[in-house]
Amino acid sequence: MVVLEPTGRLRGYRARPIGALRDAGAKPVLVELEGSLPFDVIESKLAIPDVRRDSVSRTALVNRLRAAGAFPPVVVVAPAGYGKTTVLAQWAAKDARPFAWLSIDGRDNDPVVLLRHLAAALDPIDPIEPRVLEALGSQAPSLWDSVMPRLTAHLASGESPFVLVLDDVDLLEADDALAIIAALIENLPHRSMVALAGRAQPKLPVASLRVGGPLLEIGTFELALSRREAEILLRACAVEQRTEGWAAGIFLTALAARDCRESVDSPAGGAHVGGDDRYLADYIEAESMSELSPELHEFLRRTSVLENMCGPLCDAVLERDDAVVALAAIERLNLFVVPLDRHREWYRYHRLFRELLRRKLADEEPELVRVLNARAAEWFEARGDPESALGYAYAAGDSDRAARILSSVALQVHSSGRAATLESWLRPFDDDEQLEQYPAVAVTGCRTHAVRGRPEEAERWLEAAERGAASRRKGVASVRPCIAVMRSAMCARGPAQMRTDAVAARSKLRRGATWRASALLVEGAAAILLGNDGKADSILAEAALEADRIGSNETRVVALGERAVLAGARGDHQEAEALAVEACDLMGETELKDYSTSALALAASARAMLRHGMWEKARHQLTLAGNLLPRLTYALPWLAVQVRLEVGYACVTMRDRKGAQRMLEEVRAIFGVKPKLGALSAGVDALADEIDDMPADGPNGSSALTAAELRLLPLLSTHLSFREIGERLFVSRNTIKTQAISVYRKLGVSSRSEAIARASELGLIGPKEQLVTSVGPLDASNSAA
Question: Which of 284, 317, 566, 758 has a Cα at 20 to 30 A from 292?
Answer without folding.
Answer: 317
